[in-house]
Sequence to fold (271 residues):
Amino acid sequence: MTSKPSPDPLAQRARRLGLYGLLARWQELGDQPWVVTLIESEEAERSRRSLERRIRTSKVGRFKSIADFNWSWPDKIDRPLIEELMQLGFIEEATNVILAGPNGVGKSTIAQNIVHQALLCGHTVLCASASAMLNDLAAQDTSTALARRLRRYVNPAVLLIDEVGYLSYDSRAADLLFEVVSRRHEQRSIVLTTNKPFAEWNEVFPNSSSVTALLPVSSANRCVCRSPWFCRWTAWACARVRRRWAIVGSGRRFARCWPSSKAGRAGPWTC
Fold:
């Protein structure tokens, strides 16, 4: 019994590109030297146009390259962890990332570089400030419109929510944030920046029970925090949630907190 010949890899590439006219005459044209050039050119052009489209729809905006980031501005920062996040392993694991610290230390710059790297690697991304996202969702006047707009924030492989904690929101906004986070939980990654430790999120979303529910839905297996008070409060929150958030603080002054047990297991936090 003879086995079937393996498909021509070049023909498979032509099929993925939808070059059906070429495929129909593959026996005649497949060996021509210009076919490889044609397929490579088409792949390169489609990749370029796909990247341009994803960058345009991501709304990532202008930002400073991580190569120009001033690593000495925060007195201490876990640079190896940032560089690990730039490898995008957290996306495959559907792990979320929080960059926590005071104003002006580069949280948004780091977050934008991470999601831009995701764009270069073919992932879909959407960037929005917390206020813009929540106001956009709250403005939907029917359940159908809200469901459609929620998909905009749920579907991308990576969602960057910037500047959580700079403004206060009502209970409706807290419920909408919870809806976005819960729908993405363990399915797609979130990169979030905040100037508030978790223990102070009730100031951002006062009188909302959804804030306490956000912590179990999210989770932490690594924590790098700024300054002793920020470290203490954030570690308190991290120790009480499950593993699904990597928290990176980029404060001017900060201490580092790691679980005393092996990575990925719940355990007491040490600073």
